[in-house]
Amino acid sequence: MRSFRRKFLLILVCIPFHMQAGTGVSDTLKVYFRQNEKQWNQDYRYNGLRLEQFLDNYRRLREEPIFRSKARIHIYSGCSPEGRYKSNMRLLGMRVESLKSVLVEKYDIPDSLIVEDFRGINWERLSQMVIADPAVPYKDEVLTHLQAPETVVNSEGKLVEVRKLRLIYLRDSEPWEYMYEHFFPHLRHFEMYFGV
Questions:
Q1: Cα–Cα distance for residue pair 100/104, rounded to 1 Å
Q2: 118 close to 91: Cβ distance less than 8 angstroms
Q3: For a pLDDT cut of 70, what percent of the chain falls above it?
Q4: Sheet containing 72-79, strands listed edge to edge, beginning at the edge strand earlier in sequence
């Protein structure tokens, strides 16, 4: 039993280094989408090539007997804030289904080994980018609005995207336009990783 535990721990410790050695590829992947694009596009930002490399590493992991039936692909789905909330959620759903169908139909990954984490608008990553960029106009005000509630239900029972509206109209939209150009394209992606 002790030797089994030692082997298991050794595999866990060595896997990330083994996967990165000589390839420049790790066990994580970002899959990008153009604005309003619903379907997986293998040519956009080298999605297809990077996915192939990612899946090569995944297959190597699954060759280890201890992971054969346990290694799962996790998809963290997210989008940028432009567009209406409900439309964004529908778009995310279509993108996830498109990517899953590629994994299942083209690469023979069993559906049972694909795990979804539906995150919606990637406000957390946007906040990180704003913090890291000294050129964001009215940066402190932007960060304050990014901490406000994302949505509220108004007196008529309708969902209102207050965070986004405040950002859009802040300082004649100057910060919003800056973020639209510099940050939003990087938020139109899914993050994928594999593990147990």
A1: 6
A2: no
A3: 86
A4: 28-32, 189-195, 72-79, 114-121
Q: Give the whole-angstrom CA distance, residue 176 versus residue 182.
A: 10
Q: Is the pLDDT of residue 70 over 70?
A: yes
Closest CA to 46 of 30, 27, 28: 30
Whole-angstrom distance, CA of residue 185 vs CA of residue 16? 28
Beta-bridge mates of residue 159: 153
Does the pLDDT of residue 13 top 70, yes or no?
no
SS3 labels along the chain: CHHHHHHHHHHHHHHHHHHHCCCCCCCEEEEECCCCCCCCCCCHHHHHHHHHHHHHHHHHHHHCCCCCCCCEEEEEEEECCCCCHHHHHHHHHHHHHHHHHHHHHHCCCCHHHEEEEEEEECHHHHHHHHHHCCCCCCHHHHHHHHCCCCCEECCCCCEECHHHHHHHHHHHHHHHHHHHHHCHHHHCEEEEEEEC
Q: Can you tell me the mean pLDDT for 162-191?
A: 94
Task: State the pLDDT at residue 128.
Answer: 97
